[in-house]
Amino acid sequence: MKQKRLSAAIFSTLLVASLSGCGGGGDDEAGSPTALSVVPNTLTVTAAAPANGGPPAGTCVATYAGQFFVYGGAAPYRLDNTAPDAMVLSTNVVNDRGGSFTVTFTGVCVIPATIVVVDARDRQVTLTLNNKPSS
Description:
A hairpin with a 5-residue loop joins strand 8 and strand 9. By secondary structure, the chain is of the alpha+beta class. A 5-stranded mixed sheet has the order 2-9-8-4-6, with no helix packed on it. The chain has helices spanning 2-20, 27-30; strands spanning 37-39, 42-46, 64-71, 77-81, 87-89, 93-94, 100-105, 110-118, 124-132. It has one domain (33-132): Immunoglobulins (Immunoglobulin-like). The longest helix is centred in the N-terminal third of the chain and has 19 residues, at 2-20.
């Protein structure tokens, strides 16, 4: 009986040691438990009317659109710009969760344009941008 208890105790100790050696990995390996997101996830810029100092009617603005933050998922994040003629990104990769990038409109009207954010595990989220003409 003592032999069975001793064997069971040794087996249990070895099992615990074996499992604790796995380590499991952190968020970067497994992906964050937080869903992948980009904040804000939409933005619309409308050019001011000509009477208010805006460009000629029907024209869109070339301007800084804003800063956008990537959360959740697994870093690094790839940024796929679907309208490179209409907007310029400050980077094509965000290396860290909570990191950011900026967008600048070039003056080309887009309704909508998207930036697809893809994490290290190929999960995706979309940022939708609009650059609307003056009226």
